[in-house]
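Summary for the lay section of the report: proteins are chains of building blocks that fold into shapes. Here we show the chain for MFS transporter and then a coded description of the shape we predicted for it.
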Amino acid sequence: MSKARVPWKAVIGGSVGNLVEWYDWFVYSSFAVYFAASFFPEGDTTAQLLNTAGIFAVGFFMRPVGGWLLGRFADRKGRKAALTLTVTLMSASALLIAIAPTYATAGAFGSLVLLLARLLQGLSVGGEYAASATYLTEATPQGKRGFASSFQYVSMTAGQLVGLGLQIILQNTMSKEDLSSYGWRIPFIVGAVGAAVVFYLRRNLLETEAHDEETRHSEERGTIRQLWAHKKEAVLVIALTMGGTVAYYTYTTYLTKYLVNTAGMAKETAALVSFSALFIFMLLQPLAGALSDRIGRRPLLITFGIGSMLGTVPLMTALGSATTFGGALVLSLVALVIVTGYTSINAVVKAELFPTQVRALGVALPYAIANALFGGTAEYVALWFKKANIESGFYWYVSALAAISLVVYLTMRETRDAALTRSEQGESVPVSV
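The coded shape description reads as follows.
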C-alpha cells in the first residue's frame, strides 16, 4: 500500500463545494414553506403551475445539462477552472434567491428570478460532482484515493446537517411571521457567503498532474465524440449508479417524510432521527473509503448491492412501523451502513474508469442522467406507490434497481490500481486508463 501522504489542501478545496451545494439544495426545499406565498400567491394559477412544474423540477432537469457543459469545461480548461466556475454559479444562485423581489413588489418577475436561480443551481450541481470527483481522484496518489474521495459524501452530508441546524436555530429564534416575511432570506445569504469562501479556497488550488500532462487529442478533449469512444464505461456509470442513488435518496432526503407519513412519528422526532443517522453516516465515509484502498472497490460495491437488494424490503417495512426514536435510529443506521458501501467510493470508481481527456465528462453526464432518472425521482415514486395504496411496491422498486447494479458490480473490473499519471504508470507516454 502506498505510503504517500494525503494532500489535505486538495481534499478540502475539492470537496467543500459539495457542502455548499447540498446546503443550498436543502435550505431551498426546507424553507419553501416560508417563502412560497411570497412568490406564488394563492389564486394565481399560472404562478402555482410554474412553482410545481418548473421551479422544483428544473433543478434536476438541469443537472444533466450542467454535467455535459461543465464536464466538457473541466476536461478542456482544467479541473481547477471547473471547480472555480461551479462555486461561482453556486454563489450567484444563492444570492439571486436572497434578493429576489416578491410577487407583491414585482409580480411574476420574482418567480422568474427564482427560476433563474434554480437553473444556475442545477447547472452547478450537475458539474460540481464530476469536477470534484475528478479532482480528488487525480490529486491524490494511489493507495489513498478511496479515502480522499470519500470526503465528497462527508461534505455533502455536512451540507444537509448545516442547513438543518440553521433551520432549527431560526425556527427557535424567530416567529413564523418573521420567517415568512424576511427570515427565509437569511439561509440564502449564508449560502452565498459560504460559496464566496469556497471560491477563495479553490483559487489557490493547483491543477492536477494528470490533466497537465495529457496532450493527446487536445481538440477532442471533453467532447461527446470522445465519450462515445468509451460508451461501455458511460453505460457502466449509469448502471452502477442507479441502485446506489435511489437507496441514498430513500434513506436520507425521503426518510423524515416516510417516518412522519407512514410510521406516524412526530415531525420533531423524525427530524432528530434523520439528523443523528446522517451524522453517523457522515463519519463512516472515510473509514469505508480507506477500507477500499486496502481491499478494492468491488467488495464494498458488492456488499452494498447484496445488502440493498435483500435488506430494503424488511428495513423499510420495519421503519414503517417504528414508533420510538431508538428503534427508528437503529434501523436507519443499518440501512445507511449498507448504503455506505456505495457512497464512500462511487465517485472514485467512476473517475478511475475513464482516461484523462474525457474523465470529467465521463463521470458527469452519465451520473447526472442516472441521478435525475432514479435519485431525483425516488421521493415521487415512493409517494406515488403510497397514494396507490401499494406502498410496499416502492421497497421492491429499490430492491430491483439494487439487483441491476449488483450484476454490474459482480462483472466490472477492479479500478483501485488504475494508473492515472505517467509516473504511476512508470512510462514516459501520456496516460490512458
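Put simply, here is one thing we learned. Residues 139 and 208 are 5 Å apart (CA to CA).
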